[in-house]
Write a structure and sequence with these properties.
With 276 residues, the protein is an alpha/beta fold. It folds into 2 domains: 44-126 and 134-232, Zn peptidases (Aminopeptidase, 3-Layer(aba) Sandwich), CATH 3.40.630; 242-276, no CATH class. The protein has 7 helices and 9 strands, in the order ααααβββββαβαβββα. It has helices spanning 2-26, 44-55, 70-83, 85-90, 156-171, 193-204, 263-275; strands spanning 92-96, 99-104, 114-119, 142-143, 146-147, 180-185, 211-213, 219-221, 230-232. The chain has a 5-stranded mixed β-sheet, sandwiched between helices. The chain has a two-stranded antiparallel ribbon with strand order 4-5. Strands 8-9 form a two-stranded antiparallel sheet. Helix 2 runs antiparallel to helix 5. The longest helix has 25 residues, at 2-26. The protein is extended, with a radius of gyration of 29 Å. The N and C termini lie far apart (78 Å).
Length: 276
């Protein structure tokens, strides 16, 4: 009786394995769906010249607000309106101080809108380092297949790139299905008060975004060792802030005869490390 049960069990297992093997051999993976990209015929030379021109505005964010130059920011805003008239005509603009919030109305109001973010302020040039620059930091020089100056990467390239892309779509009679917001900040480098005002405005208007895309990394070569192709790194993160209070304790004594290791040295070392 036991032998019959064992034989039956073996036969059942064998049959199941045979079925699994046959089904595996007969299985064929479905053909993957490939989305064919569309190449946009954007005037690269004009876009390059526009980015270079934007760099010539010294839209510098200073911690000392008395150094703020409204003329430079107003000049940039006027230049953007003159350079990208289609972009400005197709959208509603609201200025929050010098932060620009554009609204591109979509055709389907039932869909939650999206927000694309960049900033046009830049950090100051450290005094005494001007001679180190191969080109003047605000000259917007195009040479050696490069655009030189503050904001070429961080982040006037993002602002100009968005206006270039949207202008191309507008000229080709494109209207987004869902509403698109563009937020171009004026003080991102010193904390982003303009971005906070945009957040508060959207909150007051009851706007719930589908998603938001802020500035990311860059398309570069040599980014990863062994990869000799252009790589577009995708940064996924939420920026925050943290303050640390570090306390070092040691036995008492007098500074005239300090021990070889003391709390002052350890505390100083930690502070330097934190600043890095």
């Amino acid at each position: 009786m036991l032998k019959k049960l064992l034989l039956s069990f073996v036969l059942i297992i064998g049959a199941l394995l045979s079925i699994a093997l046959v089904r595996t051999l007969m299985h064929s993976a479905p053909e993957p769906t490939v989305n064919v990209g569309v190449t946009a015929d954007i005037d690269g030379e004009a876009a390059t010249n526009n980015l270079a021109a934007s760099i010539r505005f010294k839209t510098i964010s200073h911690q000392d607000k008395e150094k703020f130059s409204p003329q430079e920011f107003e000049g940039f805003i006027k230049w953007a309106a003159d350079t990208y008239p289609e972009f400005h005509s197709a959208m509603q603009l609201e200025m929050l101080e010098y932060t620009l919030l554009f609204k591109w109305e979509g055709s389907d109001n039932s869909l939650a809108p999206i927000l694309l973010t960049a900033h046009y302020d830049v950090v100051p040039v450290i005094p005494g380092t001007e001679s180190i620059w191969e080109e003047e930091p605000f000259a917007g020089v195009i040479s050696n297949n490069r655009i030189w100056g503050r904001g070429a990467l961080d982040d006037k390239s993002g602002v100009v790139g968005m206006m270039e892309a949207a202008t191309y779509l507008i000229k080709n009679n494109f209207q987004p299905t869902r509403t698109v917001y563009f937020s171009f900040g004026h003080d991102e480098e010193i904390g982003g008060g303009g971005a906070a005002q945009v957040t508060e405005k959207l909150k007051q208007e009851g706007v719930q975004l589908q998603w938001s895309l802020d500035e990311g990394s860059f398309v570069s070569r040599g980014f990863f060792p062994g990869v000799d192709k252009l790589v577009a790194a995708i940064n996924v993160a939420e920026k925050g802030i943290m303050n640390l209070l570090i306390v070092a304790k040691a036995k008492g004594g007098h500074s005239s005869t300090p021990p070889e290791e003391n709390s002052r040295e350890h505390s100083c070392g930690c502070s330097h490390q934190a600043r890095k």
